Structures are given as C-alpha cells and as structure tokens.
C-alpha cells in the first residue's frame, strides 16, 4: 500500500486492474469517488468505481483497498457487486473535475485542470491534495498552450461551481485507448451535460463508432445536441444501417433535414434502407459489402478483406457482381468466402470461385427467416438481392442479433444486467 504522504495522480489509475485477496482480477478502475468539503478542505476520497464483467460498475470503498502500487489495486474482504449509483453529495473525479476551469487564488488567473492527485493521510484516509493545471486553453491533443504547474487544493477555487462548456480534452486523453463499446459505456454513465461535452470533443469517425454502441435514447440525445451540419457529418461516418436506425428514431422533420445536409450518395443509401420494413432483410442490411467484379484476382480480394475498417462479419466473404460495383450493383453472380480465398493462388480470378448454390435473400425476407437462413447454413452474412438480380447489400449476424435481443439490451449491458440499488457508503 502506498504509505502516508505518497501521491497518486488519478488519471494514472484509469483502466488499471483490481484484484481480490485470492489474486483473481475483479475488474478495472473507471473513476474515483470523492466528497467535496467546505472551507477549502481537501475532498475526501470515498472509493473507486470499478467496471467488472458484463460492464457493471460497482463501488469499492477505499477502506477495502490494501495496495495501490505497481499498476494494480489489491482489495481485502468480500466485494459487493451491486451496481454503483452516484449520490448528490458525491463527485466523480475523471468525469466531473478534469477539464474544469478554476481560479488560482494567488494570482486570480484562470487555469484548466489536467489532473488531480490524492494522498494518504496519517490516519490512513485518502484525500485530494494537489491539482495539476495549465494556464490557457487545452487542445484535444494536449498541446501546450501555457505554463503547467502543480498547486495545493487550497490554492484554487471554483470546483464547487457547475460549469458550462467544460470541455473534455483531458477526460478523452484518459480514455483514449478504449474500444468504442467501452467508451460508450463511459459516456452512458456521464451526466447529459458532460456527455454532450465529450461528444463535441470527439472527431466524427470516433463519435460515429461510439454512437453505434449506445442505447437509442443516448443516440437521439447526443445527435440532437449537435449542430445540424456536424450531425450530418457524423451520420455519414456511421454504417448506413446504423445511421438509418438512428434517423428512424428522430422526428420525421428532423430526420429529413439531416438527410438533406448529408452527401447525396450517403443520403441515398440511408433513404433506401429507410424504405424497407425494419425487421426485414432490407431493413437489416448494410449497403456497403465488399463487391468485386469477376475478373478481379484473389490477391485483390484479400487486399479488400484486409482493410481494417471492415467489420469481421463483412470481411468473411466478398460478393462477385457485374458493374457497377456500388449497391445496387449489376447482376449478382455469387459469393466467395474468405477461407476459399486463402486456399487459392493469388492470381486466380474470383469469377471462377463463386459459390452460387445458395439463393440470396429478397429484401422483404422477415427477420425470422433471415435468422433461420444464417443458422441453417452456418453463415455470418448473407447477400440481399432484388428481383432483377442486383445486389442491394448484406445482412450480417451482428445486425440480426441487435434485432433479436430485447430493445433495451444495450442499456442493460451498459448497466451490467439487472439494476440493483447501491449499498450505503458508510457501513461497508
């Protein structure tokens, strides 16, 4: 355990592993809970917010922490797995204090909070002791805009105020390595104000990836707080099927306004998807499968499959069609699966390898039949073709699962399953 006087910067705790007395990993730290105190007294550190299996967030009191060293946290005793619920008297350091503009009382200058440090007192309690700040504005890349210095907590003021336009540079830097689904989990647990600040600070592609992992209510809230031009750019960066799902949850007038602001080609794909019933192959499909002409080689096909932006289910096969190659394509000829591509010489033409034994799905195929099709033939994706044999898109197993699970499955996953009331802080 770090001894009395040992200083620990909070941002360095983000994401580190927490282990129980048996040495088994419990989860990872996502935030630190403190209680602000009056009279300039340093905030008391109450405990840690730990994300466990299933993305459930639990509260780990500091009294249960036996070691806070070497990039890991060790605990003692039984850990309560009830879901963490923040109380009005509590403040989350990473979510609410970073990026805040406060006043250095000695000079009256405004400074931006980059980090805060906690220290263990002689009575073995933890409290916030230092504030690492920077003069002037801070960019998303943390480029220096002014002097940085470490101040005593008592040397700054403004933490008790509710700040508008707080920004999110340092919060995002703390969570920079998270997968989109994990960053979505972080954003879901923020206040609406803080969530909007984080969304504003993310670039279009990153925000698009995160939106696809959020519950519908969060998606609608975030897109509604963006300026229309920015919202249209983010929708363009989303997968067309996800963009269509989001637009279908907006009021018709708002959805049409955003569609008009999107690039015509992107808007056309989304409009096509919106024209199909939601629980059909047409409503489920993506309009951006990997399409090749029959005279393309295996080497070209593998190069397309290797593109990192391709989702695994879409990269499992290529669709061979006559030109044009954009959906709706020319005549659909068949599918070549990734494993077959690996077995063939690189100069082989994909037109000679097509599997045309399975009939493609019409766009009006209901969800139940789409599910049966994928299960019966052990497929992770299936082509969707119209009456004139034009490839319209592909249905992937992840999109099917999205629609088979309960409507609130994302929110349930972000809460780690069934909600439980958090136990009292003081008596554990």
UniProtKB/TrEMBL annotation:
Molecular function via GO: magnesium ion transmembrane transporter activity
Gene3D superfamilies: CBS-domain, MgtE N-terminal domain-like
Gene Ontology CC, one term: membrane
UniProt keyword annotations, A-Z: CBS domain
InterPro entries: CBS_dom, CBS_dom_sf, Mg_transptr_MgtE_intracell_dom, MgtE_N_sf, MgtE_transporter, PRC_barrel-like_sf, SH3_actinomycetes
The keyword Cell division appears for this protein: no
Domain CBS: from-to ranges: 285-353, 354-411
Pfam family name, one: MgtE_N
Protein name, per record: CBS domain-containing protein
């Amino acid at each position: 355990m770090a001894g009395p006087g040992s200083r620990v910067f909070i941002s360095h705790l983000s994401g580190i592993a927490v282990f129980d007395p048996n040495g088994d990993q419990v989860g990872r730290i996502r935030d630190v809970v403190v209680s602000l105190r009056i009279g300039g007294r340093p905030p008391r550190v109450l405990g840690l917010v730990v994300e466990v299996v299933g993305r459930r967030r639990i509260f780990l009191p500091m009294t249960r922490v036996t070691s806070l060293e070497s990039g890991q946290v060790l605990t003692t005793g039984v850990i309560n797995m009830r879901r963490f619920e923040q109380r009005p008297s509590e403040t989350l350091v990473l979510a609410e204090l970073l990026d805040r503009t406060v006043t250095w009382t000695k000079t009256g200058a405004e400074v931006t909070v980059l980090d805060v440090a906690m220290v263990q007192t002689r009575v073995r309690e933890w409290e916030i002791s230092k504030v690492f700040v920077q003069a002037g504005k801070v960019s998303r890349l943390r480029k220096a805009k002014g002097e940085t210095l470490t101040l005593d907590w008592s040397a700054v003021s403004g933490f008790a105020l509710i700040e508008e336009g707080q920004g999110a540079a340092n919060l995002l830097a703390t969570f920079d390595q998270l997968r989109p689904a994990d960053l979505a989990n972080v954003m879901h647990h923020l206040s609406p104000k803080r969530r909007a600040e984080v969304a504003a600070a993310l670039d279009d592609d990153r925000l698009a990836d995160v939106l696809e992992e959020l519950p519908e209510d969060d998606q609608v809230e975030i897109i509604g707080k963006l300026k229309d031009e920015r919202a249209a750019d983010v929708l363009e960066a989303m997968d067309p099927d996800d963009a269509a799902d989001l637009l279908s949850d907006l009021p018709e007038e708002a959805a049409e306004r955003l569609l008009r602001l999107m690039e015509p080609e992107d808007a056309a794909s989304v409009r096509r998807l919106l024209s199909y019933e939601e629980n059909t192959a047409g409503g489920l499909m993506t309009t951006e499968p990997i399409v090749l002409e029959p005279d393309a080689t295996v080497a070209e096909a593998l190069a397309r499959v290797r593109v990192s932006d391709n989702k695994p289910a879409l990269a499992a096969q290529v669709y061979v069609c006559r030109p044009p190659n954009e959906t709706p394509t020319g005549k659909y000829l068949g599918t070549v699966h990734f494993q077959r591509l690996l077995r063939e010489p690189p100069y082989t033409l994909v037109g000679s390898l097509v599997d045309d034994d399975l009939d493609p799905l019409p766009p009006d195929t209901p969800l139940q039949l789409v599910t049966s099709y994928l299960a019966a033939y052990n497929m992770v994706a299936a082509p969707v073709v119209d009456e004139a044999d034009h490839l319209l898109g592909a249905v992937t197993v992840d999109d099917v699962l999205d629609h088979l699970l309960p409507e609130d499955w994302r929110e349930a996953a972000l809460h780690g399953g069934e909600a439980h009331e958090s136990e009292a802080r003081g008596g554990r």
